Amino acid sequence: MTITAKQSYEFADLPRLMGxxxxxxxxxxxxTSTLDALWVLYDRVLRVGPDEMGDPERDRxxxxxxxxxxxxxxxxxxxxxxxxxxxxxxxSYDSPLGHHPDRVLVPGAEIGSGSLGHGLPIAVGTAxxxxxxxLDEPRVWVLIGDAELDEGSNHEAIAYAGPAGLERLHTxxxxxxxxxxxxxxxxxxxxxxxxxxxxxxxxxxHEALHAAFTAPHPGRPRVVVARVEPKYT
Amino acid sequence: MDTMxxxxxxxxxxxxxxxxRVAVVLAEIGKDGFVDARRKYPDRVINVGIREQLLIGAGxxxxxxxxxxxVHTFASFLVERPFEQVKLDLGHxxxxxxxxxxxxxxxxxxGGFTHMAPGxxxxxxxxxxxxVHVPGHPDEAETLLRHAVAAGDDKVYVRLSVQSNAHGIAVxxxxxxTVREGRAGVVxxxxxxxxxxxxxxxxxxxxVLYATTVRPFDAAALxxxxxxxxxxxxxxxxxxxxxxxxxxxxxxxxxxxxxxxxGVGRRELRRYGNIDEHVAAHGLDAxxxxxxxxxxxxxxxxx
Lengths: 233, 303
Hints:
The structure holds two protein chains of two kinds. By secondary structure, chain A is an alpha/beta fold.
């Protein structure tokens, strides 16, 4: 019997883990647009670990923007949800790790995603379901992309969650200016108009992300717009 | 007589009392029936407003936390408008729910085509693992609603309609019932089509099966019926004609057989009026049914 000490990973290890999927340790801004926000969440904010996935009291993180999930898989591997040995098989027939995550296949994934605009409405229902069961501690997080906000289903969820006062609901919008039709400041403004607490921060600045993620927002859902390098320059 | 829809809120309100897993999700339609229940269970009776993508997505989220969502609106806004949410938020997420629709194929003819959903069951047929109940009477609606909610985390669709038979039958939420036996053909009457089918086949030598749970399709019952009644099969469905034709053909795949699928036509009528006029326009009144069933089965069916 071989006993292997559980390896611990840091943020600096993530490019190497992503490299196991992409074959290259250098990644452009598009592939890593979510990386810093994901890391800060899983490292310092979310109260969930690989052994707690069956625990009703865990925080829920829903990756709605399922496209380009290498950063997500790398973080899940670094935190012990997914074996690192799975990463090189990324996208292959026998791998649980597809180019869009499937909750049935990926340990730690709360939802399957790929088609845009599904995560936020499911997160609303998750928040409502926890409240209905008197589970007051768990928080619900959903990560979406700025262009994903084009999908009208998000606006159904945003417009409902504010007036409903879903305080435990948190949305992270990774803004890499990829929407074809957008106005400066438009993202936070739309959430604020629906009664959300909103902050816009540098999506590469871990301290700023952490402060925005943990700021109190009594009685209101919270959105953090994490701005990163534009996808198209 | 009251309607199936009149029974919906009272039955589900009792289920809210009985089972702490049950939650109701509405999109404005039907909220008046739940005023008392909402006062009692403000966190388990949820109205998301006129937002049908959110309706299904939120239902899925509730299910993922362990609740049993009962999701309700008109069929066109429950199945057709948010179809991708039905496919992904429930099916792909492996989440269960009870979808309960009202308005059916043409319950509100004055309202026109925007409020008609004859294609709802056919659409669900493109997805895996849905149970579909089509009650033919308010009493059966009560029974089938209870079966649907009690079905673990299954995906269940309950199709309520104003169209109804005069009397309810004891249904079990699974099997087709034999209501008449003959030797020259099998007629499957789905839900509210039973009275018209019985009138249409009066004096004909046919077996009539009554189906209120159409998915899974009771292939065993159909095969048994063909042993004495032969393999000419007529399906009479209150939604799109031929919806169950593939299921019937699959059930009889190893033997020569013929299937006639009767139901609501694809062509948009662009008519208002009343339910009886729409029933007749689609050839689903007793006289039209008799002509078409008789024509399909031929002279041998006449006793």
